[in-house]
Design brief:
The protein has 9 helices and 11 strands. By secondary structure, the protein is of the alpha/beta class. The chain has 2 domains: about 180 residues, Flavodoxin domain (Rossmann fold, 3-Layer(aba) Sandwich), CATH 3.40.50.360; about 80 residues, Gcn5-related N-acetyltransferase (GNAT) (Aminopeptidase, 3-Layer(aba) Sandwich), CATH 3.40.630.30. Bound molecules: flavin mononucleotide.
Length: about 280
């Protein structure tokens, strides 16, 4: 499976950029596995310390970069540019040798202002030139008025915003496929709406879906998993369930398997057992 690094440019706990990063990770196809990379623990770059290999956090971060093929970078805007934390991460990762190079990227900016962090987005793209990272050119994603986009569970519910993020992810998948893995692009596109992952046929008819509902105490319940016979025997139900599992992991939820397939899945995959509850 291809690993994709997810980097949010803000350090604060309730950062909108972290919530947007979660949404983007949730929209990735199953074959691209999100790895959340924390840049908050990186000391400011200082070449003197680097010469003597004195900062273990820098080495850990560089190894994390080495392990991913592509990046999703979500930046807030600070004074019309990106954050010091993200700029520092660019600098740290570019030294000893350039650990960013030859990767793909999706750059997304967000802001409570209408301008959606345009200045920060452009500054990140500028740094990616010299870091030799290839970003998705279009769609450009500047998420304005970000404070209005999330519901009480930190999920984006606005269909237009989800569509924009899915379009951006699709462009990222296409770019990633050109770089290495055509199999991702050729498998059916799983779409997302809150409480629902699904696949539409070319005629617009629903071909497969998994439905889950929020419960109290950070639990979700899977109530239905179904796959049309036209696309059976391709592991689709498995992929849909894995998408719900990733959703639960991202949002730190447990899952009640309340349909036959989900119960079968739990028995077959003891490695995920701690995520499931009665
Ligand atoms: C130092 C600082 C500078 C800021 N400058 C801008 C700015 O230039 N443009 C903008 O849209 N918002 C600006 N803001 C507001 C941020 O967009 C807002 O605090 C946002 O929530 C930060 O992103 P986060 O939620 O991901 O932490 C600034 C905030 C801080 C703390």
């Amino acid at each position: 499976m291809t690993q994709i690094g997810i980097i949010a440019g803000s350090l604060r706990k309730n950062a909108y950029s972290k919530k947007v990063a979660n949404e983007l990770a949730n929209l990735l196809p199953f074959q691209l596995n999100p790895i959340f990379i924390d840049i908050g623990q990186l000391p400011l770059y200082n070449a003197d310390l680097d010469a003597d290999n004195l900062v273990p956090a820098w080495e850990t971060f560089r190894h994390q970069l080495d392990d991913v093929a592509g990046l999703i970078i979500v930046t807030p805007e600070y004074n019309r540019g990106t954050t010091a934390a993200l700029k520092n991460a660019f600098d740290v990762g570019s030294k000893r040798h350039n650990h960013w190079k030859y990767k793909t990227a999706l750059v997304v900016s967000s802001s409570p202002e209408a301008t959606g962090g345009f200045g920060a987005n452009q500054q990140v793209r500028q740094a990616l030139v010299t870091l030799n990272v290839t970003p998705v050119q279009r769609p450009e994603v500047y998420l304005g008025n970000i404070s209005h986009l999330f519901n009480g569970q930190d999920l984006i519910t606005d269909p237009a915003a989800i569509t924009l993020l899915q379009t951006a992810i699709n462009a990222f998948v296409k770019l990633q496929a050109r770089f290495e893995i055509e199999s991702v692009e050729s498998s059916p596109l799983i779409r997302y709406e809150p409480g629902h992952f699904y696949i539409d046929g070319q005629d617009g008819n629903l071909l497969a879906e998994i439905i889950f509902h929020n419960q109290q105490n950070k639990r979700i319940v899977i109530t239905n998993t179904r796959v049309n016979e036209r696309i059976r025997s391709q592991g689709i139900a498995n992929q849909l369930t894995l998408r719900v599992i990733r959703f639960a992991q991202i949002h730190e939820l447990t899952i009640i398997p309340d349909c036959t397939y989900a119960q079968y899945f739990v028995k077959k995959h003891p490695e995920y057992q701690q995520l499931f509850t009665e």
